[in-house]
Amino acid sequence: KRIDHVVSNLMLLAQIPEKISAWIVDNDMEVFYVRNFFELKGKKGEIVSVLPFLSQRTLLKTSGLFYGLNNEKLRIGARGLSNIMLNSTASIEVEQGSVFVFHYSRLRGT
Known about the structure:
By secondary structure, the protein is mainly β. It is built from one helix and nine strands. A hairpin with an 8-residue loop joins strand 5 and strand 6. The longest helix has 13 residues. The two termini are 22 Å apart. The mean pLDDT is 90.
């Protein structure tokens, strides 16, 4: 895979108006761009990464993930990588900034 194409597709996803439901799917992974509240559906034990986009100080809360965040400032290159779903749903609430949610799902291909 070409990393420049991957980054370009993420940038395009971030430009889609919030009222339009859109995400990227690739084999066993899906990527969502979240500006407000998002409920992720999956399975217990699946991997989820929540990475801030552009903002140096993204403020968010999560539930249903092993490493929970509660009104925490997430910075680029810091926490948010390789979390684990505790149940079949997890929620991400962004209060400031925006994030990409990477969900590695066992629903496809296994």
